[in-house]
Records
---
Amino acid sequence: MTDLSHWDSFEDFDPNRIAFLIASADPEYRDEVLVLMREGYRIARTVLAGIPMTAEQFRIWRKHKLFPHTLVSKQLDGYPMLLQYEPDRNWELVKRFRESIGDFENQRFARTEIRRWLGAVGLKSSYTFDSQQKYVLPVSPSLEEEVSDSIEESARVQPPTGWKMEVQKAATLHWKDMRTAGGNPTVSSIVDSMAKWCRANNVLTDGGINPSANYLRTHVLGGRHWMPPR
């Protein structure tokens, strides 16, 4: 069995990581988990956008089994649920709510919420999502900030290796082909195609899953990670 204990220090997770920890080496089970997670999140977001209640009221409703299969991200939980319900403006409110929260792939889910959701939908998990084991060092705020900045800077400038390099090579060829055909490519315009390329060529992340378009935009092809060809 795969040792997953190194994830014990993480307090929250994105959907792809959760699916990997739940399903481990079973790709079909991972896909099933992601479908159920996406639906649970969609319902939670729709309910919170369309019904006049606070986040605390929603938790009470869910506790009484009215919305047991919903999945609330940290972004949703932190959003002030005080929207006024007006039938003729409901779509506008939902649209504003969705834009403020972001896509499903970018959500972060706390351990307690994942554990509650697993029990509600009856899924078995390879990882328990028990309470986070915290490792705290007695450092001064200034030193803590300096270390954090150093780690963040190091993560940004590390050269790509493995699967990321393969994606960047393929993206370079795709970019040049689009330019030759008279197009004006951007990173945002190619990430969907590159995500499909990853699935077609079985390119997997270090977590053993196909990278999404949003993940490629943020961690592989955007910012300092990749320089598009001229």
---
Amino acid sequence: MLVQLKNSLAHWLNSANDFLDQYVLPWPVRFLTFRFVILITIGLLIPLILFAGNTVLVLMVNSYLNTMSVAVSSIVLLYATISEARQKQIADLQEKRAQEDHSHVTEMHQLILESLQNQRQEIEDLKKLVATLSGQSYESETLAPVQDLKELHPRGSQRFAEGEPHQRFDEQLPHNVLVTTVRDSLRSARKRSAGRKNTNL
């Protein structure tokens, strides 16, 4: 019951965030990044100096500037968080693609080595057959085993394990509790969203 309530709340929050990101938040971003708005906001420092004795005007301008400052800080923080999550997604996709390509090339070379090994074995069998038909004795050469190319990697076959890049990044990169918490929450939200889409399909 508690898990179902938590999932329902998370679904509602994700839906609300999607609605705000699509229909509401773009407007204050456009307003605050408009060139004339920036110039006018900077120009409000002039009446603060010239009419310092007018308490009502000073309070109004200060309230506007404080509101704009909080709005800009919140928007910058929001987009920085989204950008960090997006960069993490891009890095994950690039690493996954590189690992798939590396595995594919390694498997191709491995198949070539195994094919060459089979050809050597067939040649040895033919030599033995010819020697038998000729009434001669032939001692087959011992063929070296095929080298496992994955073991030649500096990290060994572990480099090709699932999730190895994430584990290596977590071990080598410095940790930040806030960034990790936000990233994990965004990753969980994406997994739940993907699960809902697969269920709908």
---
Amino acid sequence: MKNDSGTIIPIRYESGNGEMMVYGGSLLGLFLLSLAVTRFDGIFLLAALAAFGIAYYYAPLTFRRHPPLQVSPEGFYIEGLGLLPWSKIAGIRIYNKAVRNIRNAELYLILHAPIEKAVVREREPESWRRYMYSVWKPVSEGELTVKLEPLAVSPEQLGDVIRARIAEARKTGRA
């Protein structure tokens, strides 16, 4: 990840992440639905709905056109939340968690203001998107966390780029 202050850096989901849940859930749902239809059994129908629900929830992990995160000259864009200008970000922390040697890094963004006031160009997510997987969640009024595990980016590189952009914004007076 190259930190050129004038470019937009899209951060996409890692290839293959979530595909088993989406395609496997869909296939299992179709199989269970066929059993429910042929046997007229409500249990199979409920199981099929659950499998389709799992596939629906994890579907964003297979989306390739819209990256969940973007680092731009204006700020840090988070899909489903909006753009956080560099001037609104007080600092970041990267926490590393490990489960059976699997690294689960999280990026904590500390904001100068509550999330609602810090976000500009907030785009209300479509109603169908609200119940799908999202990489971010609020921790407190002025702090949110971003899961980095499903993304195709090194947590250290992303942290370095964000810190450099925050420092540049402070130096130029945008912070």
---
Amino acid sequence: MSARGALALLALLCLTVPAAGQPVSERRVRAAIDDAARGLGQAISGGSPLSAPSAATGGLGHFSIGASGTVTFMEIEDPTHEDGTVDFILPTGTLTAAIGIAGGGDLPGGAGGFGAVDILGKVGPVVAREEIEEGQPLYGLGARVGVLREGALFPSVSVTAYRSWVDDLGWGEPEADEVSFTGDVGAWSFRADVSKKLLLVTPYAGVGYDRTSIEADYRIPASASTGGEEVRGSIDVSSGHSKAYAGLELPLALLDVSVELGRYDGGTFAAVGLQLVN
């Protein structure tokens, strides 16, 4: 219930409600969860598939492993007021891997790499914050298909499809006198990336689309409810968002280091990655 991590942060917003004596509107809570789908989908799916350039590994016997950290800046409707929004940050960390399956063939004109296939995977935490009891693991699995292999006259081009998910993210004690959330979040992601080595660095850029679904349960205690009675409910929402990103990769000894910035429909994100390529 990947919503739980971001929903945990979402509930973070509601933490101030009882203390300030302001009742929590169920309508606003549901609207905030629905609004959070874009940011949650972005947080678990990221920008470029490996926070690195677009090149496929090169077929059987080739692979890459890496680690990356991403920070997603989110804006959602404020569940503590009838209007307005609240900004917050959701960090994630992942270990990534790409395993070559096929090296691809040549195209007319001397371009190669068409049809190269990599299997991609990732695992890591949606990082726990002070208001969240513990982080929850996020997973991802997909495939990258090469369109062009980088050459003297050609950039590297690839397309990727993968799914990311996190379950049982939550904030607050469900039976305590406070607002609490639990949820599952999953996102289908599609990317198109291009990169080209220039002297010592490799610039890369890409565009993408995510389709995010959230299944969440929430509880508003009587002391914080607008009706003075405990409210329990569930919500199942789905929404899509597009994104664009760009980055630079720099080789350092055995590892390649990358820095990436991007923009999605609900805000911005940034990532730093390390990668070992064979």
